[in-house]
TrEMBL record:
Keywords: Amino-acid biosynthesis, Lyase, Metal-binding, Methionine biosynthesis, Zinc. It holds the Pfam family Aldolase_II. Belongs to the aldolase class II family. MtnB subfamily. Pathway: Amino-acid biosynthesis; L-methionine biosynthesis via salvage pathway; L-methionine from S-methyl-5-thio-alpha-D-ribose 1-phosphate: step 2/6. Residues 8-200 form the Class II aldolase/adducin N-terminal domain. Its cofactor is Zn(2+). This is Methylthioribulose-1-phosphate dehydratase. It is an enzyme of class 4 (lyase). Binds 1 zinc ion per subunit.
Length: 206
């Protein structure tokens, strides 16, 4: 994909997720795969609801910036980790919603979503009669170390690549989702966040 098109998609995604309240302050980061070796990713520290195409830059799959004067997202290596592992990933979204933050603090090593119609946003689930165990990983300011932990987790998951859910939660921090393209990534994030919000509300009813 051309950088201009990717940047326009990222700017629009920022507006959408800001309208939903999932990227408060300067939280969140987004990316789109450009080709086999490069991705377009948000510049660090910008408010994601007010992005312009100048707030999107190019890095390689090791997180090295094409233009060394620009500083990419502090979490760039998590985006790279997804594109490196999942060849079908074309867009990655990260947000900090209240639901993902609160539930990830309370959860164990995964958070199971079961019985929701919106489970169909995940691949290979044609019915609500299913469950997805969304991994919950520890937060860590050392992002390279966090990515090594994710790689170890994915390596150890039974069922191979197809069984790995296209998203995870970072405890007390936020969610990551990915999909083949930006519209699908937005749909997955909205679906995941809807189910997390439901789970949170169900807990408050108990
Ligand atoms: C104020 S949010 C703290 C950093 C973070 O978690 C985030 O998602 C945004 O960081 P970035 O460097 O991508 O702007
Ligand atoms: Zn974050």
């Amino acid at each position: 994909m051309r950088l201009e098109e990717a940047a326009a998609q990222i700017v629009a995604a920022g507006r959408r997720l800001d309208a939903l309240g999932w990227v408060p302050a300067t939280a969140g980061n987004f990316s789109v795969r450009l080709d086999a070796r490069r991705l377009a990713v948000t510049v660090s520290g910008r408010h994601k609801g007010f992005l312009t195409t100048d707030d999107v830059m190019v890095v390689d799959l090791d997180g090295v910036a094409e233009d060394s004067r620009q500083r990419s997202s502090a979490e760039t290596l998590l985006h790279c980790g997804i594109y490196r592992r999942f060849p079908e990933a074309g867009a990655v979204l990260h947000g900090h919603s209240i639901a993902n933050t609160v539930l990830s603090r309370a959860a164990g090593e995964s958070l199971t979503l079961a019985g929701y119609e919106l489970l169909k946003v995940f691949p290979g689930l044609p019915t609500h009669e299913a469950e997805v165990a969304v991994p919950v990983v520890p937060n860590d300011q050392d992002i390279a170390r966090m990515q090594r932990g994710l790689d170890a987790l994915w390596d150890g998951m039974p069922g191979g690549m197809a069984a790995i859910p296209p998203g995870y939660l970072i405890r007390g921090h936020g969610s990551y989702v990915w999909a083949p393209d930006m519209p699908s990534a937005l749909a997955r994030m909205e679906g995941l966040e809807f189910m997390l919000r439901c789970a949170l509300e169900e807990r408050s009813l108990r």
